[in-house]
Design goal:
60s Ribosomal Protein L30, Chain: A; magnesium (chains A, B); 13 strands; about 300 residues; PurM-like_C_sf (chains A, B); Phosphoribosyl-aminoimidazole Synthetase, Chain A, domain 2; homodimer; kinase (chains A, B); 2 domains; nucleotide-binding (chains A, B); alpha+beta; ThiL-like (chains A, B)
């Protein structure tokens, strides 16, 4: 199987359109960027056994490789447009590649995203790097460095589900929350809706504690987090404290958004966008890193997210 | 070593500028695209022992990972702007990463290209995926599908040098042409100069025969190639026929440009851009794939480029 036949057979579903002059099949893709917008771009890699369990279906891997990048675009408030794919495989398994492609195109099609280029190559371990391209109206990107004292800290949904699922899988137990790990849903619509509301935003990929820490470091502020206000699945609610917050604070892979905005904007947003569920879990303070509280009492907990090496 | 310290230490040299609102250090980079231009984007991956010999210095690997992508941009006639880097490593070796970063930034700086994002992760084998972003004035991209009958087929310089060097290295011989393999130079200025001249273009990464074949297939035409007109290094000139053309026709990694233009434009280009060395090596014919000639005599040779699997 040559690289070219593989691409032609599995990865050429999206051809040129109005705003994609050249798609898969040339040295590069050529794309129109809408007037008045900036280009938003990110790259994220998944390696077998490192970023997903070895028994993960190819369809889910294709989904997740796109989802984690759309999540990064969403964390800037950007509108996703297209992706490139760098796919490294230890061998050519047609059924695997077809299933992977189905998962990849399913999420792309759901968000109107086109696969416009990339390459496939041999490597001893399966690895997938996706680069995602999106757009944002000029100067409206929501960064990590805009958090302000007294901002409400919010998250977009259940935290800790993916980490809990992974812990069950690693113990060879079935998990009711397996889909949360395998098929994370990027918060694309919410990210865009938060333009003009949120002061700062990040997606939760490496753990709420560590990811919120990036906002704090970039913004030069601290945070007070109310653990009891962080939404989680009922399966996590009655776990022992250390175990529960290991998943909620230090677990990764939820791909929910964490963002800050002032109290007025928070109320306005809830009034204007009642269909989005957003949850206030604390507030930005002047300094002191992340201080944790449970029912108003300060609690100690060691924040330590995903380590890449 | 966390991913974040590694990026902060080694990959944060390019901060925000006039046209890069957000560089390394947020969920995404945010970039201005010049008015009247289209975005050009490509992704290319290098895997250790597959795309470079195991003894390749980290500095050269950093260079080459960027060079192969700038070469793809050049093959569209695009102006390179920025890159993202997906770096997978089996362990954190500070000296290796520093050397790799030096090689990567050296070629970036030479072409005014900024590293604006990406990720680093653990993987059993070293692998590097770079995505390159460039711009082109609207509707001026030079594609693979524009070749026309009677076009002159051209290349931009010596062909076969990298393949010859690789064959020496694999036989544990020193190679005078090692730099051609380790430090390929993308034809950035020539690619842009060919806007408005070339009907079709590709870069030679997998072998002249196979890469020209992509132009022919996309354009629905054939080619007559004069082997004796293909420029090569003196070290290749007196090799036995089969060996010589194995490097020149089937060898890869030269990253020269192969392009076609009509005879008038070819003469005009040489008059207007005398400082570029371009070489006519054949012509586009109606059909028949690639027909090879040597001193006017048809010769048989099996065209077979780099197989990715």
């Amino acid at each position: 199987m040559s690289e070219f036949s593989l691409i032609a057979q599995h990865f050429s579903r999206h051809q040129a359109t109005n705003d994609i002059a050249i798609s898969v099949g040339d040295d590069c893709a050529v794309v129109d960027v809408p007037v008045g917008h900036q280009l938003v771009i990110c790259t994220d890699t998944m390696v077998a056994n490192r970023h997903y369990p070895s028994d993960t279906p190819a369809h889910a891997i294709g989904h997740k490789a796109v989802a984690v990048n759309l999540s990064d675009l969403s964390a800037m408030g950007a509108t996703p447009h297209s992706i490139t794919l760098a796919l490294s495989l230890p061998s050519y398994d047609e059924a695997w590649v077809a299933d992977f492609a189905d998962g990849l195109y399913a999420i792309c099609d759901r968000y109107g995203v086109k696969l416009i280029g990339g390459d496939t190559t041999y490597a001893p371990t399966t690895a997938i790097s996706v680069t995602a391209v999106g757009y944002i109206p000029k100067h409206q990107a929501i960064t990590r460095h805009g958090a302000m004292v007294d901002d409400v800290i919010c998250v977009s949904g259940h935290i800790g589900s993916a980490s809990f699922a992974l812990s069950q899988i690693l113990q060879n137990q079935p998990s009711q929350l397996r889909d949360k790990l395998d098929y994370p849903e990027p918060q694309v619509a919410l990210g865009q809706a938060l333009r003009g509301y949120a002061h700062s935003m990040i997606d939760i990929s490496d753990g709420l504690g560590q990811d919120l820490g990036h906002i704090l470091a970039a913004s030069g502020v601290g945070a007070r987090l109310d653990l009891d206000k962080i939404p989680c699945h009922t399966l996590l609610e009655h776990l022992p404290f250390a175990q529960k917050y290991q998943h909620i604070i230090n677990g990764g892979d939820d791909y929910q958004l964490c963002f800050t905005m002032n109290k007025e904007k928070f109320d306005q947003f809830q009034a204007n966008f009642p269909h989005f569920s957003i949850h206030a879990i604390g507030e930005i303070v002047a300094d002191g890193g992340v201080q944790l509280f449970e029912h108003g009492q300060a609690v100690a907990f060691d924040i330590k997210g995903f380590e890449h090496f």
